Structure formats: structure tokens, C-alpha cells
Amino acid sequence: MQIDKVHGSENHFFLLDQTKLKTRLSDQELINFTKKIADPQTGILNGSDGVLVVDQSNHEGVAAQMRVINADGSEASMCGNGLRTVSRYLAQESNVDQFKVQTLNADLQVSKSGNFATSVPAFSVEISPVSFAAEKLPFKNLNTEELIDQPVPEFLPNLKFTAIAVPNPHLISFVSAEELASDDLGILGKRLNAENPYFPDGVNVSFAQILEDNKLFVRTYERGVGFTNACGTGMSATSLAFAITHPDQGHFEQEITVYNPGGMVKTIVHQIGDTYTIDLTGNATVTHHIEISEADLHAADLDNVAITETHEESAYQKFVTQLPKVSDIAVKS
Ligand SMILES: N[C@H](CCC[C@H](N)C(=O)O)C(=O)O
């Protein structure tokens, strides 16, 4: 049995296709396997932010199903960077470049897009459904039904926050370069993902710096994970918050470039009536193939795996090196 190590913007995952197994891993086995392999101490290849689980879909017109198990064993309703890598995997399996993938709450349109750079394949995925409603995030005890560009001194003084479910929950603040570099994001992220009165299910927290018109840098503290190199749904939700709260700089229906600690993605934010959707485009990189027996998968035993490197990472690193330095862009604006 082969599993892959993949990444989108260096948001790393192991990809497991349950349809290739004689017996599928149960939910408990998936949790055990994820906790083991994703942990840099007990896992392989420095661990990951989680495991992407591919399975059959029984929805009509849908190619397959993707589930997202976070590094701590919790399940996320969506993963934007992960969906791009799952899309690439499915496209290669089926030789089809455009299809739908079932996620926990929605069937999402995906498609192959032009390479991001030489030997850096890229995919585009739909991020939806979007909601601002307190019960959808969910959040409570904030005396508001929607949190859009509002100060919340209980979180941090002097910052404004926007909460968006896409449909996994995100809390976003547009901040200065100094604030971005401070410890505040980690402290707030930890607080809102421990037991707290506001986000009972935890929340992915993103701080964004506006670099120029349609250009952002986003850093995310993820629920179930901690600091990540990049969070696809986070960058998508932040792009939407940008267009809504800074309409002079962030524009609907125009490409937004989002830099992150692991690279860069492109987003386009759409509004049809009062419905929002976001397109997220970025790399879908396979760094390793891993051979593991079916019995070892079920037992979460990683002692006898055989790892082969694909050599795609050097092309990705070259692409990252060619990106403009965020500090240079920020100084220009
Ligand atoms: N990294 C993912 C999101 C994982 C979400 C997860 N941490 C949660 O909502 O629990 C992304 O690229 O969209």
C-alpha cells in the first residue's frame, strides 16, 4: 500500500486512499494513525499538520470524498491546501482535470490550473459555504450575531476582528508588521483553542498584513495543529474579510495574491447576491511516496515503511526563492 507526503504552501499532510485497502481504517484507527504519523517525534518525515483521507463518494456527479484529520486527531470540515493535493491525486488517478470532491459539509468544484512555476503543479479549489453567523462558527458571549471588523478587547486591545466560517471557523485581524511579528497570534490562538468562553469548538486564527492593493501576507495559528506554514481556508477567509473590510484595497472578482510563511497562493472572492464563495489556487506538491503494509496502517506501526523521495521539493523551493521578499513589498506601499 502506498501513501503520499504532500503539501500546499508547505502545509504538509499524509494522503491515504481508503479505496486501495482491503479493509478501510475505522475512525478510531484513523485517529491513532494520524496522531502517530503527524507528530514529528513519533511520525516520519518530520510529521505533518494532519492526514487527508480519500474515499468513495455516494453523491451523484462527485469524484470522491476527502476527510481531514488534524494532527491532534480532531476532524476539520475543510482544508483548502489539502484539497488541492487531493485534487491532484484524483486527477492523476482518473485522468480528468475538473470534478467535484465531497467534503464534510459541501461538494466542492476543483480543477487543474497552470503550473505555478516549472515543475510546480497547481490546482484551483472552491471554498464554500461561507457564513458569518455566530451559530455557524460557532462563537458566543460576544454580544453580536456577526463579528465583522469589530474591536474585541477580550481578545486583544487595539485590534479589530472578523469571524468567518468557510465552513471551518476562522478569526481574522488585519495588523501591522510589528503586530504580526509579535507573540500575540500564538498567545491568542492557544487561548481560543483551549477551553474558552467564546469559541467552544476552537478557531483558526489568522493575522494579515496588507502589503498593497490585492496583496496580503497571512500567518495562521490552526485549531488542532498550532502554527502552520499556511492555511488555505484561512487565506481564503482572510481574502474575503479583506474585500469586505478594506474595499479600497481588496477587490471582489480580482486576483488577490496571498503570501504565507510557506509560499504564496492566489484567491478570487466572488459575491452573488448575499452569497460569497472563494477560489483558492496554489501548488499541489508530492514530496514522498511511502510504502506501508495494510496491517501496519491499521496498527499505526511506522517501523517498516519504505520512503521514496519524488524530488518535486527542489522545484518548489526554487519557486519560493523567486517570490518577492514580503518586507520589500511592504516597504514600497
Ligand atoms: N490547513 C487547512 C485547514 C485545516 C483546518 C483545521 N485546522 C480546522 O479547521 O480544524 C487549510 O489549508 O485550509
Query: What letter string, H or E per element, gives the SSE order?
Result: EEHEEEHEEEEEEHHEEEHEEEEHEHH
Question: What's the tally of helices?
Answer: 8
**Distinct small molecules:** 2,6-diaminopimelic acid
Name of the level-1 CATH class of the largest domain: Alpha Beta
Q: From the alpha carbons, calculate the radius of gyration and give it in angstroms.
A: 19 Å
Low-confidence spans: pLDDT under 50, at least 5 residues? none
Q: Structural class of the secondary elements?
A: alpha+beta
Count of spatially separate domains: 2
The H-level CATH homologous superfamily of the largest domain, spelled out, is Diaminopimelate Epimerase, Chain A, domain 1
Function: Catalyzes the stereoinversion of LL-2,6-diaminopimelate (L,L-DAP) to meso-diaminopimelate (meso-DAP), a precursor of L-lysine and an essential component of the bacterial peptidoglycan.
Pfam family, one: DAP_epimerase
Binding site for substrate: 11, 70, 80-81, 168, 204, 222-223, 232-233
Keywords: Amino-acid biosynthesis, Cytoplasm, Isomerase, Lysine biosynthesis
